[in-house]
């Protein structure tokens, strides 16, 4: 719940708007750079652990991570993010047990077990990130990567990108590898992700983002 009197930090809000006008593509690049890096880390982890052939997928993510740094158009940046998602989820498909019948990432209308688990996990992550954005005094509706739309918490979706793969995808993949039946249990998912979604890291990153609005560069959360 958000207090009805919430007004954020006016200094941060004003600078957030100024940053959006002058440095939108710069901040958007960092969100995507962080996302691509963290996706690579997840695939690399499972490549080493299970000796999976993920060289192509990891190589493409690395290429896109390099390319995005030279882009100044947000549409082009989002295009690289979308291409990266294609390669990343192809890698995840190779890792998951075939019994889950995971073919591709589906946001809406998902009927397979793993996509449903992901949707639950991202919902949990969104609430944590939203809380962190509010706590840092940022305006949740003024995003840099995601376009502005009435009622859309674009900045929350922006910041979420950095945390999806390390805090939601990785633990769910591990649980599926351990016992595919367990990702069908909603209580199991909530229990697992309640501990894997690290709020301290999210709140710390939101504060760094707020600081970047006022003075300084923004650097994304990079998992290891």
Q: Which descriptors would you attach to this protein?
A:
224 residues; 8 helices; globular; single chain; Four Helix Bundle (Hemerythrin (Met), subunit A)
What features would you describe in this structure?
With 224 residues, the protein is mainly alpha-helical. The chain has a single domain, classed as CRISPR-associated endonuclease Cas1, C-terminal domain (Four Helix Bundle (Hemerythrin (Met), subunit A), Up-down Bundle). It has 8 helices and no strands. It has helices spanning 10-50, 55-68, 74-95, 113-135, 154-160, 164-178, 186-196, 199-214. α1 runs parallel beside α3 (74-95). The radius of gyration is 18 Å and the shape is globular. The mean pLDDT is 93.
What's this, in brief?
The longest helix has 41 residues, at 10-50.
| Unreliable residue stretches | none
CATH class: Mainly Alpha
Main sheet, how many strands, which sense, barrel?
none
- Second CATH tier, the architecture: Up-down Bundle
Q: Helix share of residues?
A: 55-70%
Radius of gyration: 18 Å
| Helix-strand makeup class | mainly alpha
| Termini gap | 33 Å
Strand content: under 5%
Number of strands: 0
Number of contiguous helices: 8
Number of domains: 1
Which fold does the CATH topology refer to?
Four Helix Bundle (Hemerythrin (Met), subunit A)
* Overall average pLDDT: 93
CATH superfamily: CRISPR-associated endonuclease Cas1, C-terminal domain
H/E element order: HHHHHHHH
Mind sketching the topology for me?
Elements: H1 10-50, H2 55-68, H3 74-95, H4 113-135, H5 154-160, H6 164-178, H7 186-196, H8 199-214
Helix pairs in contact: 1-2, 1-3, 1-6, 1-8, 2-3, 4-5, 4-6, 4-7, 4-8, 6-7
């Amino acid at each position: 719940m958000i207090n009805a009197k919430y007004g954020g930090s006016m200094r941060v809000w004003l600078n957030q708007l100024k940053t959006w006008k002058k440095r939108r593509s710069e901040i958007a690049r960092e969100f995507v750079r962080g996302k691509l890096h963290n996706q690579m880390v997840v695939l690399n982890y499972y490549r080493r652990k299970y000796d999976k052939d993920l060289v192509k997928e990891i190589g493409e993510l690395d290429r896109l991570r390099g390319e995005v740094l030279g882009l100044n158009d947000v549409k082009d940046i989002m295009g690289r993010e979308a291409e990266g998602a294609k390669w990343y989820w192809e890698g995840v498909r190779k890792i998951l047990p075939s019994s889950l019948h995971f073919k591709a990432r589906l946001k809406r209308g998902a009927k397979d077990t793993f996509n449903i688990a992901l949707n639950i996990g991202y919902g949990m992550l969104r609430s944590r990130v939203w809380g962190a954005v509010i706590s840092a005094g940022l305006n949740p509706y003024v995003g840099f990567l995601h376009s502005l739309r009435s009622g859309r918490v674009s900045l929350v979706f922006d910041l979420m990108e950095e945390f999806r793969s390390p805090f939601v995808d990785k633990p769910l993949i591990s649980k599926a590898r351990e016992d595919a039946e367990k990702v069908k249990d909603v209580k199991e998912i909530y229990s697992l992700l309640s501990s894997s979604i690290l709020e301290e890291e999210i709140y710390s990153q939101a504060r760094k983002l707020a600081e970047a609005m006022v003075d300084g560069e923004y650097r994304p959360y990079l998992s290891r």
